[in-house]
Amino acid sequence: MDSASSDEFTPTFYIGQHESDRVRVTPELLRQAQDCNYDMLTTPITTPYFHSRVLTILSSHFEELDSHPNRSLPVPTIPSLSPVDTPLAPGEIISQLLAVVSPWIDLCSPDPVVYNLSRQVLELEVAYAAFCGIGNIILPCPKLHHGKLSGEGVTQYACAVQDVLNVGHYIQMSVSLPMMDNPEQDSDNVIGSLAERARAQYLGLSEDGSYKNSMDELEEDDLGSTFVLPRKKPAKVDFFGTWDAWNVIRTVCKYNNRLFVALSIPPHLPPLSVSSRWHSEPLRLLCITSETFFKNPGGYPAFTHNHQALLTRYMRIRNPPWLLLCDVGPIPGFDDPETLLSPAEGFLTSNEAADPSSPTPAEASELQRKGSKKSNKTINDPTPHLNYLRNLQRRQPPRTMLERFGAGYQDYLQAPLQPLTDNLESYTYEVFEKDPIKYDKYLLAIQRALIDWRDQCKRASGPSGQIVVAVVGAGRGPLVTRALQASESTGIPIEMWAIEKNQNAFVLLQRHNEETWGNRVNLVKSDMRSWKGPLRQAAPYRTGYTGQWPLSCNEEEESSNANTASNGLEPFEPQPPTHGPIDILVSELLGSFADNELSPECLDGILPLLNPTHGISIPSSYTAYLTPIAAPKLHADISARLSNDPEAHNTPYVVMLHAIDYLSTASRPSTSRSTASGKSESVPSPVPNILQAWSFSHGPAEPLPAGSANKHNERHARLTFNLRDRAVCHGLAGYFEAVLYPGVELSTNPINMEEKSPGMMSWFPLFFSLKIPLYIPDASTLTVSIFRATDNRKVWYEWMVESWSTLMGGTGGGEKRRVRLGASEVGSSKNGGCMM
Q1: Bind-site residues
Q2: Which residue range is the domain that position 821 belongs to?
Q3: Which amino acids are annotated catalytic?
Q4: CB neighbour list of residue 319: distance below 8 Å, 6 or more residues apart
Q5: The pTM is what?
Q6: 577 and 626, same structural domain?
Q7: Binding residues for S-adenosyl-L-methionine
Q8: For range 813-833, the mean pLDDT
Q9: Distance between CA 835 and CA 419 in Å, rounded?
């Protein structure tokens, strides 16, 4: 895809509309919403009549309990739905509706009666929605705070969700969640909420609804001594509180692939670490209210720059979330004919909606506080919030070259190649050859190697003084082409050799040699490890060539005389053919984790052929790197493979990592664009901690010890990562850096990839999965142990993750103690190891 087509790329925003007080969606309402440029609407599953019926059942049961305090009464059963209880019915419009479970239930309630009735409502509504053909359901937000209790009911909420996933076998469910847990905003704002009916004794409250101990609380220790607990301070915002609740829900539901998140976007965004965590989760909906917007100087709703960046990032996910505008006003024209819109109308002009000087959150807050006349003026637009989002859709930045190349590969699991046992298809080679960055780097490395060889007057190995260059594992020949180009651009003659074991690719190499390379390449069909080196025929006459290039003045004269006066040549006894050394060895054997496609083992067999004094290997060295990540989507995909592949969690996968979160990060300032006031501000940007595991280097080979059985290529690393925030580790991301030639490097390491090889797309990272994800609390440490093992037939990896915390005191006194919190199972790719 060329740059022109990339500029034309526009992401698709599916935008829906939700009204909390909506009772019914008719075909006429849906048609008018679509005319206004909405894609879908939400609908309640039950009516206010059903709500009042449930409240009556609850009140009657509580009255009966009060009148018979010593009797144990069963929880009443809610009768099945009747026509007056629901506005839904199967029909043509059902596929364009999102069903909303009644928000007045409380599946986290500590009151068993309230919880039981809430669960009955959930099951009735989901079962009926499934019958009607609804495809997507939005579940109510779990209520995390009940009186003095915090987060106690999340498990029972999760169990209820797990059960209804089995009721609607094809329905996809989204759990409504705010980005962060703010206790002050967790109050009941739904009229008639069952949470308000929970009995005081289950909330840690007195009969009048206040805390039982309004002053400091008295407690007894194990020895019977009484001590005072000071009154708790008001709860603070827990940035990862709602994510923690979601983690419990999806863990209980075993990472069900029909369970998603409906994430509410707040007016003031939390730290980047929070938005990055949600970016890794399965987002189905981004819920946006009128409070998420501020009014720009023209009086129109707009996003801050941070909100725009968040939306752009989330909409680049492989399956981008839908956008749901909540309570931003009714569908225009349905109740008020004067606001009726005809199809395709209602777009803001670019001057109205475009706000090139989007303010920072602080400036947006200041604009709202001042409430200037200009920002509060009436605007003649019945759907300004929708039109702003449509304008943002058209203004999305074009995809980068890497995003275009990786389209469809984001978070897509691929088994690593087996290059020594499998012959690759032409299409596989073609994909790799689309990366111009890598081959430009190889060209530069070969050019520099040739120039240094000449400038340093190194002795060459070619019969006529040429530098011998061999490309091993030549494939379809891209590196051969680069080597010939390097020779031409530097004016330094080379003797070119290409070795390839794939008999099918060898046919193409022969054709290239005839049609493109002018038969300048010596082709050898062989495994590089069994090749004996460039074949040399013994000369029938002695020449003045001593093996050094360029020739000295005396050597040039002697050689010239020998060539022009054949009668002066001194014959000698012919010798049998021999094999000469290689001066510059070029290989393209690197894998996603540097050595995972057996580059060390392949080169072990050919490095003895390298010029023992001045030989150069390109690449000269490479290093593997690791970091722990949260990757719930990958974990769910791998778990789904277990029925057909018991070794799914033991396979290291090649993945274009996208919807992930780096668990160990450091902060560094990154300058953002100018603010509305013309000033530039610097905001902290999280940078992953990616640590070195091991390295390999190649040059003129030293003899291997007898019977080494490839033990010299074994490696082991133990790495420690500090984590600030609680998280779940689903596995490890593997990267590499390679030195092709001094000053020419390749890197997939996110920390320096843009510096060393920007835009390179030949390698995706390697993902080492954990069979059972490991939960880590705040301020913890992860220790990663990884091994590269071999038995002389194949190579495999083994890996393990441990979590640690530091505690004060204990039996040993007041010193700090490091305590192991948990450990993963040992992952091993031995059964599917890379065959040698």
Answers
A1: 429, 438-439, 500, 527-528
A2: 617-835
A3: 588, 597
A4: none
A5: 0.85
A6: no
A7: 429, 438-439, 500, 527-528
A8: 89
A9: 9
